[in-house]
TrEMBL record:
Signal peptide: none
Species this protein is from: Chroogloeocystis siderophila 5.2 s.c.1
Pfam families hit by this protein: Glyco_trans_4_4, Glycos_transf_1
Identification of the protein by name: Transferase
Record flagged with keyword Transferase: yes
GO process annotations (BP): lipopolysaccharide biosynthetic process
This protein's record includes keyword Hydrolase: no
Domain of life per record: Bacteria
Gene Ontology molecular function, alphabetical: glycosyltransferase activity
Domain Glycosyltransferase subfamily 4-like N-terminal as annotated: residue spans: 15-165
Length: 385
C-alpha cells in the first residue's frame, strides 16, 4: 500500500501530529507499506534534511493558513501514485487542498483532526470561532463530509468533536493511537540528560515536556508547584519544550514573583536520548492541559515507567485512571495542586506500583504496533465505502 500523508509542516517543533506521522509511517513501512509526506514547507526548510521519510515540500505556504499554489496541482497530478491520502489537521490549506484535489477521484482520503474540533477552542477564542464559522460551511465541513472516514484517536475526542459546529457530518471511526517504545539504555540516557543539566542531579524532578502554550496550563503548573515546593527542598520543576508564542518570559516573571525561579529549569526543546533521559530522570510527568487530544508525550512517559499527573482535559485520562498509571484532576489550580500533593504524600511502595502500572498501561494500550494494525484495518475497511 502506498500512503501519502498531507500536513502543514514536518517541523518537529510543530507538535505531536508530525511525530505521530513519522512513527506510524516508519512502522507501516516495515510492514510493506510505502509512506510519503506532502507538506507546505519551503523546500529549503532546515528540518527537511533530517526527516526520515520522503517529503514533497510544496511551499512555502502564505500566511498562517499556508496557501500554496503548488499544492493542489501537484496532488492532482500524483494522486494515482498512491492508494490513499491521510490529511493531518484542519484549519490549514494542507487539508482543504487535499479535498480540492481528491474529491470525486479514485484516490480515497482520510482525515485525522488531531483534536482541532475540541469545543475548548470555541469557549476560549470566541472571536476566532466566529471567524471559523465564516468558512466552515464551504471549507472544512466539506473536507470532513467527503472523507472516506474521519479518524479519532479515542472515544472522548469523537464525542467532543460534535460540539463545535451544529453543521457537522462525517463518517466517524475511532482508531487506536500510540507511540514507539524508547530504544537505547535508560541508564545512559538518564546520564546524558544530567550531563547536559548537571544542576538537576540529586533532585526530585517534576517534568513538563510539551510546547509552551496557553492551552497546556503552564501557568497553573507554576502556581501549583509553588504551593508544594516547600514540602521537600530537593523538589525541582523542569519545563522542557519550545516557546512558540513568546509566553516563556511572562511565565518566568510569574515564577520570580512566587519565589521559585531557582527551582525551575527551562531546557528548551529536547530530542533523542536527552529527551528520553529526561523521562527516566523524572519522578512524574505533569501535563495540566486545558485541551489535549491524545498527548503522545503522556504515552512516551508511561513507556519509560514514569507516572503521569494530568488534567481531565487530556482525552485519554479515562484509560490512565483505569490502569492506575497516574493521577487525574480538573484543569484548574486546585486540581493541579491536588495531583502534585497526592503524589508527594504517596508511600514509596504506592509510587513504585504506579510506575509499574504506567509501563503496563503503555504496553497494553498505547504501543504503536497495535495502533498501526488498527489504522490499516480502518483504511482497508473504509476505502471502498
Amino acid at each position: 500500500m502506498r500512503i501519502l500523508w498531507t500536513i502543514a509542516s514536518v517541523d518537529p517543533a510543530s507538535g505531536g501530529p508530525i511525530e505521530a506521522v513519522k512513527q506510524m509511517s516508519e512502522l507501516l513501512n516495515s510492514r510493506g507499506c510505502i509512506s510519503e509526506v506532502a507538506c507546505l514547507d519551503s523546500p529549503n526548510a532546515p528540518w527537511l534534511k533530517t526527516f526520515p521519510l520522503k517529503v514533497h515540500a510544496l511551499g512555502p505556504g502564505i500566511t498562517g493558513y499556508g496557501y500554496s499554489a503548488n499544492f493542489v496541482p501537484w496532488l492532482k497530478h500524483n494522486a494515482r501514485n498512491y492508494d490513499c491520502a491521510i490529511a493531518n489537521g484542519i484549519w490549514q490549506y494542507s487539508s482543504f487542498g487535499t479535498w480540492l484535489a481528491l474529491r470525486n477521484t479514485n484516490t480515497p482520503y482520510f482525515v485525522f483532526t488531531h483534536g482541532m474540533l475540541d469545543p475548548w477552542f470555541k469557549r476560549t477564542y470566541p472571536l476566532k470561532h466566529l471567524k471559523k464559522w465564516l468558512y466552515w460551511p464551504w471549507a472544512d465541513y466539506q473536507v470532513l463530509r467527503d472523507a472516506r472516514a474521519v479518524f479519532f484517536t479515542c472515544e472522548e475526542e469523537r464525542l467532543l468533536a460534535r460540539q463545535s459546529f451544529w453543521l457537522y457530518k462525517c463518517h466517524e471511526v475511532v482508531v487506536n493511537f500510540g507511540t514507539a517504545a524508547p530504544q537505547g539504555n535508560p541508564t545512559l540516557q538518564r546520564q546524558q540528560f544530567l550531563l547536559q543539566f548537571p544542576q538537576l542531579s540529586h533532585k526530585r524532578l517534576f517534568l513538563f515536556l510539551s510546547r509552551i502554550h496557553i492551552k497546556k496550563g503552564c501557568d497553573l503548573l507554576i502556581q501549583a508547584f509553588a504551593k508544594v515546593a516547600s514540602l521537600d527542598d530537593s523538589l525541582h520543576l523542569v519545563i522542557a519544550g519550545p516557546d512558540q508564542t513568546g509566553w516563556q518570559a511572562e511565565l518566568q516573571q510569574q515564577a520570580e514573583k512566587l519565589g521559585i525561579s531557582q527551582k525551575i529549569t527551562w531546557t528548551g526543546m529536547l530530542s533523542g536520548n536527552v529527551k528520553w533521559g529526561a523521562f527516566h530522570a523524572a519522578e512524574v510527568l505533569v501535563l495540566p492541559s486545558h485541551q489535549e487530544n491524545f498527548g503522545i508525550v503522556v504515552a512516551e512517559a508511561m513507556a519509560c515507567g514514569t507516572p503521569v499527573l494530568i488534567s481531565n482535559k487530556v482525552n485519554i485520562w479515562r484509560e490512565i485512571l483505569a490502569a492506575k498509571a497516574g493521577l487525574v484532576a480538573s484543569d484548574d489550580l486546585n486540581g493541579t495542586t491536588q495531583v502534585l500533593h497526592t503524589w508527594l504524600t504517596m508511600s514509596p511502595q504506592e509510587q513504585q506500583r504506579m510506575r509499574q502500572n504506567a509501563k503496563y498501561c503503555f504496553t497494553q494500550t498505547f504501543e504503536i504496533h497495535q495502533a498501526a494494525e488498527s489504522l490499516l484495518n480502518a483504511i482497508n475497511t473504509n476505502s471502498m465505502r
